[in-house]
């Protein structure tokens, strides 16, 4: 089965074609095209929904066309079996662009739609394989974490635990089987990615600050500032990151630190020379990672899962990936992390989620739902 995946929930326009045969095996990625309006949001310090939707309209057809052609198919009558499209959660204007385009193509090509929850997409980014996509797996037998190419005998086993860490979500989800998901906990306020972005804003870093904080943190000492680990001791699996942001704000005020307003990536890279910035970034990053890793590993133990899965933009963070590799290796649980490209929003993860959860609909039955949860 060949599926075209379309993702337009926020500022990324993604389209990809995947091919799969067996739900016990990974799907193959035939093409993966992406356009982003991120640069325009860096200047405004965050996403203005109206702008994001207008950019989606510009990109949607060229991106879909490219993904179909790169998969070696004919755009006018492609040999695909279904269109998987993100129908929520997300920004309504952006979602509508993808959903309405998918409906038109579905009618035109006479193939069904599979409406996909964006959060499932981040999880199912782990079920994709190509020769050039690296998938990090810790085998139970490995003493040291290693990067292995996927073989069927190291494939994702249930029950699995997924940590979805993105700009909008920080969720721990127990997966008993395809489509059998139980949410163990989620964020009560800011998501982990949102914490990176909002704290970055306090430091006058351009949006999205996550990748930049991660880069600057490499040069800093995480022990410099003693920041809180919110909800570390709570008995549930919920998270909260807004208190961490307030602590950083209080620290800035107390010390009368002033950061130049350089909302531009080139200027922001100069921050690497500031001891204050790199140490703050390292301390913030460690506080966020500590909580994520602690709570996730607690759930791994309690639910005796066979696989641990990461997904979402924050899963692209190198320090987070390394910490999870170390901890899951010690624990003896197989860890799956998508390649960096498949952590952030993309069409491939939507196509993959569609393959394993084939909820076929006719075009008339699909509507966008910005508030959708699991
Ligand atoms: O999954 P995603 O692309 O979009 C949402 O569904 O939200 O995630 C975007 C989020 C942003 O908050 C961004 O700052 C964060 O992922 N992010 C990172 C890194 N790369 C992206 N956070 C920390 N370290 C990174 N390397
Ligand atoms: Zn996302």
In summary, what is this structure?
The protein is α/β, with parallel strands linked by helices and about 375 residues long.
Model description:
The structure is a single chain. This protein has 374 residues and is of the alpha/beta class. It has helices at 38-44, 49-70, 92-109, 118-124, 192-202, 210-217, 242-254, 265-269, 275-303, 318-331, 340-343, 347-356, and strands at 2-7, 12-19, 27-36, 82-88, 113-117, 128-129, 136-137, 160-165, 170-177, 180-185, 307-311, 334-337. The strands form two sheets. It has a six-stranded mixed beta sheet with strand order 5-4-1-2-3-6, with helices on both faces. Helix 2 runs parallel beside helix 3. The longest helix is centred in the last third of the chain and has 29 residues, at 275-303. It is globular, with a radius of gyration of 20 Å. Residues 131-153 have low confidence and may be disordered. The structure holds 5'-O-[(R)-(carboxyoxy)(hydroxy)phosphoryl]adenosine and zinc ion. Residues 10, 166-168, 193, 196-197, 208-211, 214, 312-314, 316-317, 344-345 line the site of 5'-O-[(R)-(carboxyoxy)(hydroxy)phosphoryl]adenosine (KG4).
């Amino acid at each position: 089965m060949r599926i075209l995946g379309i993702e337009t929930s926020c500022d990324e326009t993604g389209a990809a074609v995947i091919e799969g045969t067996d739900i016990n095996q990974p799907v193959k990625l035939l093409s993966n095209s992406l356009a982003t309006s991120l640069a325009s949001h860096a200047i405004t310090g965050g996403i203005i929904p109206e702008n994001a939707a207008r950019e989606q309209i510009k990109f949607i057809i060229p991106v879909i066309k490219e993904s179909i052609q790169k998969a070696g198919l004919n755009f006018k009558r492609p040999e695909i079996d279904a269109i998987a499209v993100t129908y929520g959660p997300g920004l309504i204007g952006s979602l509508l662009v993808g959903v309405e385009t998918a409906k038109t193509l579905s009618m035109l090509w006479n193939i069904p739609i599979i409406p996909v929850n964006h959060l499932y997409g981040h999880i199912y980014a782990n079920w994709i394989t190509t020769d050039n996509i690296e998938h990090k797996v810790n085998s139970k037998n490995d003493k040291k974490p290693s990067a292995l190419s996927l073989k069927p005998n190291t494939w994702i086993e249930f029950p699995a635990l997924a940590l979805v860490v993105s700009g909008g979500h920080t969720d721990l989800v127990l997966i008993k089987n395809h489509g059998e998901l139980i949410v163990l906990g989620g964020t009560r306020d800011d998501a982990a990615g949102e914490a990176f972005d909002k704290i970055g804003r306090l430091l006058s870093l351009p949006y999205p600050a996550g990748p930049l904080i991660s880069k600057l943190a490499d040069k800093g000492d995480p022990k410099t500032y003693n920041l809180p680990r919110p909800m570390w001791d709570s008995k549930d699996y919920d998270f909260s990151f807004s208190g961490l942001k307030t602590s950083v704000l209080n620290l800035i005020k107390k010390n009368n630190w002033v950061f130049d307003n350089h909302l531009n990536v080139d200027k922001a890279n100069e921050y690497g020379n500031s001891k204050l910035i790199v140490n703050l970034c390292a301390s913030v990053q460690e506080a966020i990672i500590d909580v994520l890793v602690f709570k996730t590993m607690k759930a791994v133990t309690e639910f005796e899962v066979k696989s641990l899965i990461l997904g979402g933009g924050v899963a692209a963070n190198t320090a987070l990936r390394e910490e999870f590799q170390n901890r899951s290796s010690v624990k003896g649980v197989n860890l799956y992390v998508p390649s960096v490209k498949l952590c952030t929003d993309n069409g491939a993860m939507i196509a993959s989620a569609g393959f394993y959860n084939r909820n076929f609909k006719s075009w008339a039955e699909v509507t966008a739902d910005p508030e959708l949860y699991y």
